[in-house]
Write a structure and sequence with these properties.
It is built from eight helices and twelve strands. The protein folds into two domains: 118 residues, Roll (Thiol Ester Dehydrase, Chain A); 173 residues, Thiol Ester Dehydrase, Chain A, CATH 3.10.129. The chain has 306 residues and is an alpha+beta fold. Helix 2 runs antiparallel to helix 7.
Length: 306
Amino acid sequence: MSRPTETATLTPMDALLAILDLEKLEENLFRGLSPQVGWQRVFGGQVIGQALVAAQRTVDEGRYVHSLHAYFMRPGDPSVPIIYEVDRIRDGSSFATRRVVAIQHGKAIFAMSASFQYDEAGFDHQVRMPDVPMPETLPGERELKEKFLVHAPEAIRRYWERPRPIEIRPVSLEQYFSRDEASRERILRDGALPTQNVWVKAVGSVPDERHLQAAVLAYLSDMTLLDTSLYAHGTSVFDRSLQVASLDHAMWFHRPSRMDDWLLYAQDSPNAHGARGMTRGCLYDRSGALIASVAQEGLIRKKAIE
């Protein structure tokens, strides 16, 4: 697979789908590319999505991912391909287990275990979706850029101005463009749970294919999480005095869902300690069905002052 020369003419979603379309090098061996958009390291959600695609291509038809557990070990280099090696650990009558290692420069940068299952009937319950405003009532990205980005820090402005395959509509704008000191003090004083609710939506069409939809869902699941841990401390991932990176990532896929409408990403952070922040997330569709659950711990370390 060669890198598209017309990347600039592709829509952000088309570019993401091309990145998720791995090249098969050999049995159980795949190669993935990264977008050339000036990032110093590969976005973690991209590696999760590509690793999931590699694992999916080694399982029997009709088995779908129900969980994945991953560790980020080294920052990815966007200038060179990533090699994904799949270990077919087990193929049982109901479940299949795969382990994927992502390699660059001869070293592992990421490792993931994933489990796949045939669809089955069974018990059914879920936690209720938070009562939040619908995405249509919130400012869109164009309005956010016009009204709120004028005085935003440069890092935040650059992030929001870059075309992306996933649109984000925060329910609370304070967590992105200002700091709610009263909420922060209450969290630290009373042990209140820091929370964040964000609507997310694919910008463009995602094919109606469950493996690919799961990969796109895995891609977006790495977005906005660490900010929930940092909110209680009056800062964000855009703070240049912080070293911020995903350390591990776990995801459970509860129900299939199309990617053609808004999803609510409800997040909370039960703990931050030892230069690490823990965040949990639930992804709901518009009807309130719980699509997936996520847990992640990230590095949130103050940089040494030179």
